[in-house]
Protein 1
Amino acid sequence: MECTNSYIKGCGNSPTVVGCNWGRGQRIVLYMSGVRDGALLAAHEFGHDWFDHSRQRCSGWSSPEHVMGQATCQ
Ligand SMILES: [Zn+2]
């Protein structure tokens, strides 16, 4: 796992993101200072080892589906 100090480019369809998981855990990069809740970002990106995004629009801690919400929203 790697951390970076800037927004991540070249991840899926989004031009810039705060975290990316390539190949279901082959490479994970986190932009921890780009979010308010770094632990949630880490949980979300590690979650992509097994899960795609849920139908939740934003991520949060209330359920596994919530952790895998589509955006950080903060
Ligand atoms: Zn995600």
Protein 2
Amino acid sequence: MNYIILDLEWNGSYSKSERKFINEIIEFGAVKVDNDFNIIDTFSTLIIPQIGKKICNRVSELTKITNDELKDNGITFQQASEMFTEFSSDCVIMTWGNSDIHALIDNYMYYYNDYHVPFLKKYCDIQKYCEKSMGIYNASQQIGLSTCAEELKVGFSEEEHHRATADAVLSLKCVKKLIDKYHIQDYIEDTDNDDFYHRIKFKAHFITDLNSPEIDKSQLEFNCKLCGGTAKRTSKWKSRNKGFSANFECNDCKRAFIGRVYFKKKYDGIQVNKKVYYKPEPDENTDCESKGNKTGDN
Ligand SMILES: [Zn+2]
């Protein structure tokens, strides 16, 4: 089986007709590798922006791609799509994280009114593969490609980094450091079904209504972290920072604490995150705060 490591560069372009920003793809860079991850072919093209007329400063600083370069050497997204689909026939597509797939979905939706990516039959997120293999996977905090390369002692030049083909090669070098020890097959997904697209397009969000039937009410109970005893709630629930918090008191050791809970709706279900904060013990020598309050009441 052959694999393609694909990297895209894009520009935040404002679409007047859609009234929103679209991550408009301006460069495709890819390497095709064989079963042993040796490079057998490369693909590189610039794309003339059709949604935004100019690339923004941040993108041109990061990528060093200029508007003139795009105008002189670029082709249309539709042309690039046809060429790349031919180049990648029956290969597993790999990208560093799934933001490139999000960009592809947005561009196909814009140009073809169809979010299916024609060359995507089998997909592998190599960021996830690297993180899990390195034992540093954390769904809410992903590492960047250059950090991963440093961790794995893969050399790269900062000059070339952030250009599509160079980043694809860098991703490949990271994979090659791990491939003998960790099976990549387990990370390859079939993408010719709508479940893949629903999953990738699903936007995780916090549930901010405490009465939502999706909330498991038993998650609103807290135990004391200090003695392990049960606790009773001593205030109403308050919405706070996308979560809910309330005061509690331990039934055993009587310590007061704040219980905070977040419910995040993900594609696979609700993720619950609970935290407990203890108030500092009242200091008998410095009770000026309570005295101050009494004075204030007068
Ligand atoms: Zn306790």
